[in-house]
Amino acid sequence: MRTSIATVSLSGSLTEKLTAASRAGFDGVEIFENDLLASPLSPREIRARCADLGLSVDLYQPMRDIEAVPDDEFGRNLRRARHKFELMRELGADTVLVCSSVSPLAIDDDGLAAEQLSRLAALAQDFGIRVAYEALAWGRHVSTYDHAWRIVEAAGHPALGTCLDSFHILSRGSDPKGIEDIPGAKIFFLQLADAPLLAMDVLQWSRHYRCFPGQGGFDVAGLVGHVLRTGYDGPLSLEVFNDVFRQAEAGPTAVDAHRSLLVLQEAVGVGELPAPVVPTGVAFAELVTPDAEPVSALLGALGFARTARHRSKPVDLWEQGEARILVNTGPAARRDGTGLAAIGLESPDPRAAARRAEALLAPVLPRRRAPEDAPLDAVAAPDGTELFFCATGRDPELPDWRADFAEVPHEPGSAAARIDHLALVQPWHQYDEAALFHRSVLGLHAQESVDVADPYGLLRSRAVTNADGSVRIALGVGAAPADDTLHAQHIALAVEDVVAAARAFRAAGGGLLPIPANYHDDLAARYEFADGELETYRGLGILYDRDAGGVFRHCYTRTVGRVFFELVERDPGYRGYGAQNAPVRLAAQHAGRPAR
After folding, report:
1. Which of 136, 236, 375, 533 is deepest in the core (most CB within 10 A)?
2. Residues 87, 199: one domain?
3. Is 490 annotated as a binding residue?
């Protein structure tokens, strides 16, 4: 289906918005009136600019407070409308959005509303324009889509139809099944937005918290399914009012927006995307660092052994059991210290995984590699993390990244471990985009978002996982300063005995994050422990959580650069991440920061 986006959904000047929409792959745009009024380009120049970019002007919006008003007021409204229709003819837009009135002058009279909308449509028809009447969720007298349709039907004018908006319908809890009673030819336009499920004034909810389909809690796909069953053949168009999107760069936001429509079309059975290829494990995590010494010391204390060196790049492979860490000291090393730069994901079909990622607009990463290096497919996540699709030692016909490394003399790692989960901190404006990306591109399941209290703000976190938990990625974003420990990434290592692992780490010279005594005092009040158990946890800084599925014990290393490690012992039935302990961990990290 054709795709469109309202210019109000993107930041910047109108020219920047149009360029971003075109580059992201949209077919058309809705021109929001404020964007036109603020533009130095004339309507004819905007039309020419859209044509140059391959964009149609699908809608001009909004026209407000038109219907069900006293005759003298309606006369003024028709004068205003004539001016807008002349403008639209220059702009090349053939459909105008008319919102249900919120004016205090509006009269609760459906017959009058229908009669005046019919007269408006007759005037519009003289200009070759259609009128799409939309029920605002906070309209003075018309606030539901079925009410708006009854008025349109009563008016009976061929140039008058309805506009359906998923936010206005779903935010009120209206049943979208009734949409199927509307003839598809009378649905002149369809606007789409998702939103988190919030208990607040619907106007404020609408103006500030809408998001792209798949990023909130609405069943947008279900609504679109009802619309398509009417025979509607117009575009799927996004109209999203969101404070974050208004401040973020237009280009990435437009890509995120178009990706959401591709996924939506797949969900309703009208899209043609390569099938999802869900990763089955973590092949490696790659750290980049300007100084390998502190990272090497940390890995050594954790029980890792340096087992191999890349044949052509300054990259070392460290292993402990099934856990593999790459340490890269090449040009990619971050100036601001050690960071988690890449993740290798085990894939049943790496090439197919890359094809789906590319179809969903994920940037394909060019690789500087020697001719003998393994040809791995890689894409960039929204935060810039590189994702490699791997087939480690599984199929001789598929490239194995380990063939790029030459073994070096080493002693075996001191214990068995694997990567339990990875935590990635997202840029503040890409949190929702990251969840949609990992869900749609990688086929991971997104869990509910949680808020965690930090001494200097709130941290939002949302985990994405595969079915068996062999891939777990926690996506977080917070309000603390960018150089704060809140923004550190971390790698969680699953061990058989966290007490033994913590003791071995400390004996090897590693520094564990100290946890306040008040925390363990509170544990004593909430749970019963075996003799000496709680004292052991207190001495090592081990945190504890329990749910219906089992027990979770974990502790943290001190931070190196922007990375720290977590040692995790989880019962098989425990599916969480110790979220209730996160505020204590964050406070301890803040307390351990070097003085400024």
Report:
1. 236
2. yes
3. yes
Instruction: Report the mean per-residue pLDDT for the chain.
Output: 92
What mean pLDDT comes out for the span 306-318? 95
Alpha-carbon distances, residue 279 vs 229, 264, 388, 399, 459 (angstroms):
35, 22, 11, 16, 27
Domain boundary (361, 383, 407) is at 407
**Which of 44-58, 63-77, 141-155, 336-350 is predicted least confidently?**
336-350
Q: Is 445 annotated as a binding residue?
A: no
What tokens does 419 get? 């990567």
547 known member of a binding site: no
Residues 194 and 244: beta-carbon distance below 8 Å? no
CA 446 – CA 464 distance, rounded (Å): 4
The verdict on 503 and 541 lying in the same domain is yes
CA distances 251 to 12, 85, 158, 373, Å, are: 10, 31, 38, 33
Q: Is 191 annotated as a binding residue?
A: yes
CA distance 172 to 507: 60
426-452 per-position pLDDT tens digit: 887 788 899 999 999 999 999 988 888
Tell me the backbone φ, ψ of residue 384, rounded to 5 degrees: 95, -10
Last residue of a domain, one of 207, 239, 267: 267
Predicted TM-score (pTM) of the model is: 0.90
Query: Distance (Å, rounded) from C-alpha 482 to C-alpha 216?
Result: 26
Percent of the chain with pLDDT strictly greater than 70 = 95
239 is in an annotated binding site: yes
Confidence band for 485, pLDDT divided at 50, 70 and 90: very low
User: Is 566 labeled as ligand-binding?
Assistant: yes
The CATH number of residue 288's host domain is 3.10.180.10
Is 586 in the same domain as 449? yes
Is 393 in the same domain as 435? no
- Cβ neighbours of 400 (radius 10 Å): 16
Is residue 287 within 8 A of residue 340, CB to CB? The reply is yes
Antiparallel, parallel or unpaired: β 550-556 and 563-570:
antiparallel
pLDDT at 482: 44
Confidence of residue 294 (pLDDT cuts 50, 70, 90): very high
Q: Tell whether residue 16 is among the known ligand binding residues.
A: no
Q: Domain of 380?
A: 281-407
